[in-house]
Design brief:
The structure holds 2 protein chains of 2 kinds. Chain A is of the alpha/beta class. Chain A has 23 helices and 18 strands. In chain A, the strands form 5 sheets. A 5-stranded mixed beta sheet of chain A has the order 2-1-3-4-5, with helices on one face. A 5-stranded mixed beta sheet of chain A has the order 11-10-14-12-13. In chain B, helix 1 packs across helix 2, helix 2 runs antiparallel to helix 3 and helix 6 runs parallel beside helix 7. The chains are: A alpha/beta, B alpha+beta.
């Protein structure tokens, strides 16, 4: 029997350290000989902290574990052989729906292995792909295998991976580079962080295979400085692989050398763009340049450079180990394999899921994610972050593949899926994203620099109730200019959140502009808070909690909000007892 | 760049040795400016003008270029931060789950706006694009420790607790 605790960033934030402390204490108090292992994120973030009891290979998972629960689990399950059924979230007999609907390729070892022990990765068949790539296959054979698998880039654009590799192989140079883009800047996406924290070796192995295929001896991981745990685990893994001759000089006693360095990104969304990323690696401001030449021709320090995303690399060892056919069997005609999504927002069960391409959005959100939390109604799902768009309810049966998602006006993106319900204002969502892209625009192209600013100003005035007739058309007009006049993907896609919300939620824009109403009751300038005089029991909670003291009334008599003073923070609504529901938003 | 004040100079002298080690480690490596600035900020907590000038002199890079790089990336700060850095997540998931209300509550409690530091030097409030803990939204991080899901009241309570602990332990600002 052993115990396994989820030690990803989200698990730690939810209290995994306390759980570990309690577990160690129980073991010593009860004088047990029990192995305790850490692991990365299994994806059930909504149930963190997670604790697995593994008995003869069977995994029993307890969720939302507290120190008190640890005591009970020890008493009843570990020493008494009785499951603590009320805390169990998944068992071999009754696997959680969230997990059983998934097919795991990139996340194959996340939440299973100890990411800080190479032995665990090796037991799962780790570095078998690299062994084959180095000892059995030629560079051309590796690229053919990747081509036949149908693997497309998981970072956003969905470009065929083999094509980039082929180009980098064909460009002759004595020095070439393999770069891993781990600058996950898309707000609402955390797939890459979880992968790096949960299974760092899979990314290292994928990069080494790419190095062997294109003839590069140096790999660079460009990772967000905001991901300290991912960086720490990468450093540990690189060291371990070197010791075992799986990285470094003479890999597996062959003539192939491959080293990996880590470079920390300093926080710029535009650095997700390949040429901007290279500029940043070279210590410059991360500003994109015109392509061609493509990085495969002239990249880092002018040398042929192959850049792929974290998830793309994590797929590669699996493809080389199990063969292209196995991978090709999954997915749709043009989108092969699986895709990892980060489910967040107003979803009942948020977390990380990996599903075969072609599954519908409805299945991902409702079957795996358990639908909308608090019993509210689904309104839209945002895919692709600031470059993507909002997909409405009527398109929920859209299959998840690159081409179908692009047709909706959104993009597959790196895999962020932020679910929105009826309380989310779509104009505000568009404003939110434009605010982001306006800040993150590097400023090189005029249309992007000024266009996003002008679009944001229009959206701000619509949200504050000062929208004018013609604003929607003006937004659409500027959007076209920004798309046409921008050099890189950031500008070309920045208008997407605005265009998709206008396309599917035009009525909300019109309600803001013409009726000066926010249907979702979110835009502060367009709503008022009022206390229903018949429902208010005069408990005084709202008056005590109001940060500006604008609620008055005698004890046990109906209270009143002074609309002049009210800052519309919503505190009164939160604290009003559910049985009264006296605070009304209009 | 303008002159630096006396305090800044004293600070620089104290930590000069550490900075010199960083510069020596990277000297001669092309393209290491971002890494040097990251390490420098690790030492000082921010990038004082005098440090940027020194880095420029040692690496042979013009101060204007260093300033250009330092202002391009959100990680770099040009002003000192408080003892506790509160990073409030503004990611999409946090936004739709009410990050703005958390911000209002914290701003009211500390009487500062995002980007500012309290008069006593304890807290700096900053907003970040995404902390990557979306399933805990809305989230904030105080000196590297993540908290979530937050309510406006809960966020204020966390800050009050930090403050109380500080007061009990003597409340020295570093």
């Amino acid at each position: 029997m052993k115990i396994r605790i989820g030690f990803g960033s989200c698990g730690i934030a939810a209290g995994a350290l306390d759980v570990m402390e309690s577990v160690k204490q129980e073991i010593s108090e009860r004088s047990l000989d029990l192995e305790v292992q850490i692991t990365g994120c299994v994806g059930m973030c909504h149930n963190e902290p997670l604790l697995d009891v593994i008995d003869e290979g069977k995994v029993y998972t307890y969720g939302k574990v507290t120190s008190e629960m640890v005591k009970t689990i020890f008493e009843q399950h570990i020493q008494g052989n009785q499951f603590v059924t009320e805390y169990l979230v998944s068992t071999p007999e009754q696997p959680n729906d969230f997990l059983s609907g998934q097919v795991r390729v990139a996340l194959r070892s996340c939440g299973i292995i100890n990411p800080e022990k190479i032995e665990d990765y090796l037991v799962q068949g780790g570095y078998e792909g690299l062994r084959r790539a180095v000892l059995e296959l030629t560079p051309d054979e590796i690229i053919t295998c990747v081509r036949e698998s149908g693997l497309r880039g998981r970072g956003g654009a969905g470009f065929p991976t083999w094509f980039k590799w082929q180009a980098a192989l064909q460009n002759k140079s004595d020095v070439k580079y393999v770069v891993c883009n781990a600058d996950e800047g898309d707000p609402g996406a955390f797939m890459d962080r979880s992968l790096l924290e949960g299974d760092p070796h899979s990314v290292l192995e994928g990069m080494a295979i790419a190095g062997r295929a294109i003839g590069a001896n140096t790999g660079i991981i460009y990772v967000r400085a905001e991901y300290p745990l991912a960086i720490k685990r990468l450093e540990i893994s690189i060291e371990q692989s070197r010791e075992r001759k799986l990285l470094g000089k003479g890999i597996l006693d062959s003539s192939f050398d491959f080293n990996i360095l880590i470079k920390k990104g300093a926080g710029a969304f535009v650095c997700g763009e390949e040429t901007a990323l290279i500029a940043s690696l070279e210590g410059e401001r991360g500003m994109p340049r015109l392509k061609p030449p493509f990085p495969a021709q002239s990249g880092y320090w002018g040398r042929p450079t192959n850049i792929n995303n974290v998830e793309t690399y994590a797929n590669v060892p699996w493809i080389i180990s199990y063969g292209s056919e196995e991978f090709n069997r999954m997915g749709t005609e043009k989108s092969k394999g699986t895709k990892v999504f980060a489910l967040a927002g107003k979803i009942a069960k948020g977390g990380l899921v990996e599903v075969p391409m072609g599954i519908t959005l409805r299945d991902v959100i409702f079957k795996l994610g358990g639908g909308i939390k608090d019993g509210r109604r689904f309104k839209a799902v945002q895919m692709g972050g600031p470059s993507g768009g909002c997909i409405p309810e009527e398109l929920l049966d859209t299959p998840v593949d690159y081409d179908s998602i692009t047709q909706t006006g959104a993009i597959m993106g790196s895999g962020g899926m932020v679910v929105m319900d009826e309380t989310t204002c779509m104009v505000d969502v568009a404003r939110f994203f434009l605010d982001f892209t306006r800040k993150e625009s590097c400023g090189k192209c005029v249309q992007c620099r000024i266009g996003t600013k002008r679009m944001l100003e229009i959206l701000e005035r619509i949200c504050s109730g000062e929208g004018q007739e013609g604003d929607i058309e003006l937004l659409e007009k500027i959007a076209v200019k920004v798309k046409e006049g921008s050099l890189c993907g950031l500008g070309q896609s920045a208008p997407n959140p605005v265009l998709t919300t206008i396309r599917y939620f035009r009525d909300e824009y019109e309600a803001h502009i013409r009726d000066k109403k926010c249907p979702a009751k979110e835009c502060k300038s367009l709503i008022t808070y009022r206390i229903d005089q018949d429902r208010c029991r005069g408990c005084g909670r709202c008056a005590r909690k109001c940060p500006v003291g604008c609620i008055s009334g005698e004890k046990k008599k109906p209270h009143v909000i002074d609309p002049e003073q009210c800052i519309k923070c919503g505190t009164c609504l939160d604290v009003c007892p559910p049985k009264n529901q006296a605070v009304v938003v209009e | 760049m303008g002159c630096s004040c006396q305090d800044e100079q004293n600070l620089l002298d104290e930590k000069n040795g550490l900075l010199n080690n960083v510069i020596t480690a990277y000297k001669g490596q092309a393209g290491s400016l971002v890494a040097v600035l990251q390490d420098a900020q690790g030492i000082y907590g921010y990038l004082p003008q005098s440090v940027m000038r020194l880095v420029g002199k040692e690496l042979g890079i013009k101060p204007a270029k260093i300033y250009g790089v330092a202002t391009f990336y959100t990680q770099f700060r040009l002003a000192p931060v408080g003892k506790y850095l509160i990073m409030l997540c503004q990611g999409t998931a946090c936004h739709v789950n009410g990050a703005e209300r958390i911000q209002t509550a914290i701003c009211q409690e500390l009487k500062i706006k995002p980007g500012e530091t309290t008069d006593d030097g304890f807290f700096t409030l900053d907003t970040v694009a995404c902390l990557g803990c979306c399933s805990l939204a809305p989230v904030m991080m105080v000196n590297g420790q993540a908290y979530g899901p937050l309510t406006p009241d809960g966020a204020v309570k966390i800050i009050k607790n930090v403050y109380q602990k500080e007061m009990q332990s003597g409340g020295e600002v570093q």
